[in-house]
Write a structure and sequence with these properties.
Layout (H helix, E strand, L loop, with lengths): L1 E2 L5 H9 L5 E4 L4 E4 L3 H5 L5 E4 L2 H6 L3 E2 L5 H11 L1
Length: 81
């Protein structure tokens, strides 16, 4: 997990191009999603974290986004209810 406030813009873009960062998450809400998600783009940088795999996000206790990862979110939701 990489915090957005701990990485500079050039290094962030390089990691995204190299596919070292594929998912973003909200540290407060414990939600992760794709980097293109409109919900994720609106969050504050101090709350944003990055992951390279879904498994890594789940290891840190994050759940899938209901907008960009709808199918995974439904599976997660039905597993908890």
């Amino acid at each position: 997990m990489i915090k957005h406030i701990d990485i500079d813009a050039a290094e962030l873009h390089q990691k995204i191009r190299k596919k070292e960062i594929v998912y973003g998450g909200n540290l407060n809400l414990k939600i992760y999603g794709t980097l293109q998600c409109k919900s994720g783009k609106r969050m504050k940088a101090k709350n944003r974290v990055f992951f390279n795999t879904e498994e890594q996000a789940k290891e840190f206790g994050f759940r899938p986004c209901g907008h960009c990862l709808r199918a995974d979110y439904k599976i997660w939701k039905n597993g908890l209810i």
